[in-house]
Design a protein that fits this description.
This protein is of the alpha+beta class. Helix content is 18%, strand content 28%. It has two helices and 15 strands.
Length: 267
């Protein structure tokens, strides 16, 4: 059984980089969250790590809150919101980190809202002998740690913990097709494998005459260690196919964030 998606809480912490609102228990942190980097010690910073300007009483040193390196004011003057590190207020960033962060913030402003709102799919479990398909609303939990499934069927699917996902693939169908009649007839294209992927942004939800039609997800049960497989297919009769496609695209972006976050934690 998956961990209760409602567990955990938040706490306010103050680091030398600023105020952060983080999970009270690190086990309940968002899978998109990055580790706060250590600062390069002042004793090792005699000059700006970008323009090489010497530090003195006039030209002061500043640390980028994302990479932790030392810069002069000119090279570290950007104040940008940094939700991936849970800062409450905009923080000082170097130029390179500011560019990266501003692009990432589009995920928090747009795709994350799509994931939290959810979208309609046909849910099936190929591992089950019957492999029945039923309509469901799939959405991300408020703490970003679980995929939740709201189904009218008698058999409720347990939440899927994102940290336990071992593979994600985008299901595809012909461009002229309105979607396969059942998940079994949908070919699976490894557009977004996890965790090998390094740049899913370069992959479109439309490739030639092939379009995204859903998601294939394999995940590990935390207690048993068993690998489970489920498929989310966009139904031909769904009222909002655009929302479902947007959800697939948001998952694709989220996979990249999950991979980067694991790297930052040395996992």
């Amino acid at each position: 059984m998956a961990t209760n998606p409602n567990q955990g809480g938040k706490k306010l912490v103050r680091s030398k980089s600023g105020l952060r609102m983080v999970a009270a228990n690190s086990a309940f942190r968002s899978p998109f969250e990055l580790e706060e980097p250590p600062w390069v010690p002042d004793s090792e910073c005699s000059q700006c790590m970008s323009c090489n300007a010497k530090f003195d009483f006039v030209k002061r040193k500043h640390h980028c809150r994302r990479c932790g390196k030392c810069y002069c004011d000119k090279c570290c003057q950007h104040k940008v919101a940094l939700p991936r590190l849970c800062f409450l207020d905009p923080v000082r960033l170097c130029y390179d980190c500011a560019v990266i962060t501003q692009k990432e913030n589009e995920f928090y402003d747009k795709q994350l809202k799509v994931l939290l709102h959810g979208a309609a799919f046909q849910l099936s479990c190929p591992d089950d002998m019957e492999n029945l398909s039923e309509p469901c609303l799939c959405k991300l939990s408020a703490d970003h740690r679980f995929l939740l499934f709201d189904s009218a069927g008698h058999a409720k699917h347990s939440p899927v913990e994102l940290e336990q996902v071992v593979a994600i693939q985008i299901l595809t169908a012909g461009e002229d097709s309105q979607g396969p009649s059942s998940p079994l007839s949908s070919p699976c294209s490894p557009i977004a494998p996890f965790p090998v992927i390094t740049s899913p942004d370069n992959l479109s939800l439309t490739e030639g005459n092939i379009v995204a039609n859903g998601l294939s997800i394999k995940h590990k049960e935390r207690e048993s260690g068993e690998i489970r497989h489920l498929q989310l297919v966009i139904s031909a009769t769904t009222d909002n196919r655009k929302q479902s496609l947007a959800f697939v695209g948001a998952v694709q972006k989220g996979v990249k964030f999950m991979y980067e976050a694991k790297e930052s934690r040395g996992l």
